[in-house]
């Protein structure tokens, strides 16, 4: 499994998405031409910052040249260190790891993506994949406030006949100075992402569209609410879970979910509604870095 060998890569580009969130682009094909593995939307990598830590990051993009992207929110020691890196600096990358979002073969299913906060990272990769194949979808993108909205420029380049991007913010501060963001203002709501989700499906149901497949990534409380809505209407759901990780490849057990013992790094990070129904930890508990169970708030 070459995916589990750390490759040292040079940072080619850094994009300042908003205050506290940056995207890093590096090439994985050049560093590993013979065993290059094309990643799929939903997969993650372990990012090694020498002398600091190795942490999981979803892939937010990948192109045909082998350029991969990660989008990093600054929250603690390692992400702070990543934010200090410059173009030309090196990081260690292990991956692609984990499972991926499975796109239905039948095009009749209505695809809905729901993100909260930095959970947009893997869903941006998925949305780009769908857009490139002209598969239609709705993306509900939830953030706390307008100034945390990222990727608006990328989404504006999408085919508007097949993609519908809906922005939801909890606080409506007047930060729409950027013309791209203004362009999207007509699909902007001041409500929680899962509330908008239920309103959207009700609009579809009134128009006799009832076959949905839902993909979500974000705060677990939000994903749990999305799960409850999907259970109520019997929709197929795939949620990308986050847990502290150490090995990232099924060895240490830190990312185990009770009571089944499923591992987020190996069996996930994406779990179907069928699995989520049986994961008692989902929406309630996670393990801290010592392995102790703590409630999710
Ligand atoms: C599969 C997967 C994909 C991820 N994708 C992304 C991504 O695309 N972009 C991104 O910015 N982050 C992502 N994360 C989260 C990221 O790994 C953590 O934010 C990172 O490990 C924090 O490291 P740190 O040393 O900066 O912070 P730490 O010093 O370790 O922690 C700072 C604070 O962040 C919180 N925290 C850190 N890690 C976790 C965790 N795993 N679960 C819950 N709370 C945590 C804790 O509350 C802690 O107080 C992902 C995590 C997983 C498991
Ligand atoms: S992180 Fe070690 S088993 Fe998942």
The CATH C-level name of the largest domain is Alpha Beta
**Main β-sheet: number of strands, strand sense, barrel status?**
7 strands, mixed
Bound molecules: flavin-adenine dinucleotide, FE2/S2 (inorganic) cluster
Strand residue content? 25-35%
Query: Helical amount among residues, as a percent range?
Result: 10-25%
Structure summary, number of beta strands: 17
Mean pLDDT: 91
Give the termini distance in whole angstroms. Answer: 37 Å
How would the global form be characterised? Answer: globular
What is the annotated CATH architecture of the largest domain? Answer: 3-Layer(aba) Sandwich
Which value, in Å, is the CA radius of gyration?
Answer: 19 Å
Order of helices and strands: EEEEEHEEHEHEHEHEHEEEEHEE
Q: Can you give keywords for this protein?
A:
single chain, 297 residues, alpha/beta, Elongation Factor Tu (Ef-tu), domain 3, Rossmann fold, 2 domains, 7-stranded mixed sheet, 6-stranded antiparallel barrel, 7 helices, binds flavin-adenine dinucleotide, binds FE2/S2 (inorganic) cluster
Task: Write structural notes for this entry.
By secondary structure, the chain is α/β, with parallel strands linked by helices. The chain folds into two domains: 96 residues, Beta Barrel (Elongation Factor Tu (Ef-tu), domain 3); 131 residues, Nucleotide-binding domain of ferredoxin-NADP reductase (FNR) module (Rossmann fold, 3-Layer(aba) Sandwich), CATH 3.40.50.80. The chain contains seven helices and 17 strands. Strand 4 and strand 5 form a beta hairpin. The structure holds flavin-adenine dinucleotide (FAD) and FE2/S2 (inorganic) cluster (FES). The site of flavin-adenine dinucleotide (FAD) has 22 residues, from strand 4, strand 5 and helix 1.
